[in-house]
Amino acid sequence: MGKVCAVFGGSRGIGRAVAELLAQKGCRLAIIARNLEVAQSTARDLGAGHLALSCDVSSEKEVQKAFEEMQRNLGPINYLVNAAGINRDGLLLRTKTEDMIAQIHTNLLGTMLTCKAALKVMIQQQGGAIVNIGSIVGLKGNSGQSVYSATKAGLVGFSRSLAKEVAKKQIRVNVVAPGFIHTEMTAHLEEDQLKKAILLGRFGEPHEVAQAVVFLLEASYITGSVLVVDGGLQLMT
Fold this sequence. Notes:
lipid metabolism, alpha/beta, Rossmann fold, oxidoreductase, single chain, seven-stranded parallel sheet
């Protein structure tokens, strides 16, 4: 039987690309998103044997319910990928408090909750791997993204600390920090201007980030690390 992997935010963008690559490798997947219909469509596209679930990651009850469903239908989880994320770009002085809270709850608290739920299973199995999707913005900062940057920077500190907590249980925790990738989140950006600051001269594709995620899931001697996937980004605007 293939390994069981939960991909939160697996219905689109980087999360979907990760799910597609893991499915090719024979994993049994739980595709989790807020929109159940989209998650179901993605799961169907991946082939038979996969599960689609709806979940608001900022709700501990919903996260726990999702893991219970995975356990019943797929078995104990081996891999966890946290790709669910939102952004509400804007200068801090113009950012509404509710938009700050929404980003913190989804991007940071949500990852903490899914990791906590997954660890309960992984510790029993004495092994597992977690990859959290951060952002280059969380490492370098970017004007107009101070709140989003804070949530992604928080993921780095959280993941590195968690890696130290669970290493003795043979559970690995790492972060992938993408740069400018072709997703719905970057569709509004002025690509021609931004790609001048990228050594490879182009935006990345979701499947290229997925390759890094799967590498870290499978790499048995890497934990507490941040893998930057940005094409050689030199500047942040």
